[in-house]
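1st attempt posting a full record on here, be nice pls
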Amino acid sequence: MKLLVIGAGAREHAVVWKLARESGVSDVTCAPGNAGIADLARTVPVDSADPRALLAVAEQVEADLTIVGPELPLTRGVADLFAGRGRRLLGPTQAAAELESSKAFAKQFMARHRVPTAAYQVCETPEIALAVLATGQFGFPVVLKADGLAAGKGVVIAGDPVSASRALRNTTQC
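the predicted structure (as tokens):
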């Protein structure tokens, strides 16, 4: 079986490492990969945020299955594009990937479907968030999370109003 792994991080490195050792796997390609992955499999330079470019790589290497590591290509519809071309891919559709790409969407989904989750408030601006915190509704410590992909970062646990205000004013932090 010929496999294509999309991504360039530690997660994809571990996946490639394991797949390269499987007896039924004849070829592993990683796009774009990294120097460590290149020791284990062929790497192909490509913009992993570009679903069409990823499809071209899958077709070029004649991948029997594509495995997507990072969230960004999924949120850009790579699974939908592959499905439309009859290519097998392990990963959710663009609509389903929104559960990962938007914390606001995920929280609203959980509330709508009565999935237990922590209390939350979606705030459109740092000023609105500060006003909500000032009501005392949440208390401290409080978790602040920016909506959208943050590559595993973007969460601040603020222990007091001063650290919450500092984090909210530096919106690249949360």
